[in-house]
Design goal:
7-stranded mixed β-sheet, mainly beta, 4-stranded antiparallel β-sheet, 127 residues, globular
Length: 127
Amino acid sequence: QVQLVESGGGLVQPGGSLRLSCAASGRTISNYDMAWFRQAPGKEREFVAATRRSSGAPNYAASMKGRFAISRDNAKNMAYLQMNSLKPEDTAVYYCAATTSYLILSSTTRTNHYDYWGQGTQVTVSS
């Protein structure tokens, strides 16, 4: 099975940028659909972005589209989330997730479709 470790979180001012990384080990991510989710205090975990192993456009939550960009480097066994124009409401713990299932685009948003999760990295957007 694959193990996922997120990094790159921290404190950033509104309007700033961060790049989160997800390092995979144990298996090559070329066999996985990958995604980022986030969870703010007192709220449910929510979908951020997904990239599938097959060719095709990534999927984004509406509030992140145009600000966030998901990418993957199968050769390095890494996934990334570039976050720009950050807002205080983006404050949350961000999680990397993976599944061996082949997801259709609409299914990439659901937490129960992912089998493997990292421990999360805290992102705080505050002045």
